[in-house]
Design goal:
This protein is of the alpha/beta class. The protein has helices at residues 20-28, 48-59, 73-83, 102-112, 144-148, 160-166, 182-187, 203-212, 239-259, 264-288, 291-300, 303-307, 310-319, and strands spanning 7-13, 36-42, 63-68, 88-91, 97-98, 118-127, 130-133, 149-152, 155-158, 178-181, 215-226. Strands 1, 2, 3, 4, 5, 6, 7, 8, 9, 10 and 11 form an 11-stranded mixed beta sheet that branches. A hairpin with a 2-residue loop joins strand 8 and strand 9. Helix 8 runs parallel beside helix 9 (239-259). The termini are far apart.
Length: 322
């Protein structure tokens, strides 16, 4: 229970000199100041470090900027957490933005429900001047929120039993809108970096937090996710990257099944979701035209051929083009 939250802002950065200043300025404009801001530069070859240092110096907030050899965003986040001092961690990607009331709203939610140790904020998605999605929460399936949570002042308190199963199908959380208490973060082992090269690498922490934490979904759209050609979110509509994202999700779910004591319903639903996700990934790989990767993925998952003979035909057409 946090009687007085002190917020650490955790930011991984890689070649973000053009967007990092605006990201950090959005922290400087907060109506509730964080305790510290930690930027881990993940081996940038541009001026990201200089931009981060100059901007944070101008804001006059407690901060640290440090560099490591490139190792992926998960590792950068984990290393930044290790250097932070607050008792509640707020994650922000270096190309995203917070509205000025973001931290204050999280603080108010924690004050209203002191037993909460995970917060998830709604977000919008933009690409340049165009808004692609006004609210992630509003795109949830029918009855999703009444199923997973109880209505409260700022949104919904998650039902731990239903939450994990329902978010297998719809995931309303993005790293830049995630907050987690340091106590829970340490309890669940922090950020795991074994899946850092996958496109769903951040979901391992989120899914474990949903299993073990008390989650407050804050129904305020106070986060802007910026999609652009240099971030992986913007590429997820391409077949190959879509397949990688799905395979990453399946990998994380398999890890969860092995690591966690899921109940029968959770286990059945997770196993079913793994199969559906891998099946969709195999089809996406086939249509991507990446024949070698498709065949390798299919050989590693032979059970899918038994469930869908069409995959055998696709494999044959890959080996013997007509």
């Amino acid at each position: 229970m946090l009687t007085s939250p002190s917020f650490s802002v955790i930011i991984p950065a890689f070649n973000r000199e053009r967007m990092l200043e605006n990201c950090l300025q959005s922290i400087g404009q907060q109506t509730y100041r964080p305790y510290d801001i930690i930027v881990c530069d993940d081996g940038s070859i541009d001026n990201s470090v200089a931009v981060a240092t100059a901007t944070l110096n101008s804001l006059g907030m407690k901060h640290e900027v440090f560099s490591v050899k490139n190792g992926g965003p998960s590792r950068a986040r984990r290393l930044a957490v290790e250097r932070s001092s607050g008792n509640f961690l707020l994650f922000l990607d270096s190309d995203d933005l917070w509205d000025p009331e973001y931290i204050e709203t999280v603080a108010c939610a924690l004050h209203e429900s002191p037993s909460v140790n995970v917060t998830v904020m709604d977000f919008r998605e933009v690409c340049g001047e165009a808004t692609l999605r006004n609210s992630k929460f509003n795109s949830a399936p029918d009855n999703f929120w009444t199923t997973v949570g109880t209505p409260v002042k700022y949104g919904y308190l998650g039902d731990r039993k239903r939450l994990f199963t329902e978010t297998l199908k719809f995931q309303p959380c993005f790293p830049s809108g995630l907050g987690i208490s340091r106590g829970l973060y340490d309890q669940i082992g922090g950020i795991d970096i074994s899946s850092q090269l996958l496109l769903s690498e951040d979901s391992h922490l989120t899914r474990k937090a949903f299993l073990h934490g008390k989650v407050y979904f804050i129904d305020r759209t106070l986060v802007t996710i910026q999609l652009h050609k240099n971030n992986r979110s913007a590429e997820s509509n391409e077949q190959y990257n879509y397949a990688r994202k799905l395979l990453g999700k399946a990998y994380v779910l398999r890890r969860i099944v092995k690591e966690e004591d899921l109940d029968n319903e959770q286990s059945r639903n997770t196993t079913r979701e793994i199969f559906k996700t891998e099946h969709a990934a195999l089809n996406a790989l086939y249509w991507s035209g990446n024949k070698a990767t498709f065949m390798k993925a299919l050989r590693e998952r032979p059970g899918h051929i038994l469930r869908d003979p069409k995959l055998l035909l696709k494999a044959a057409s890959t080996l013997i083009p007509f």
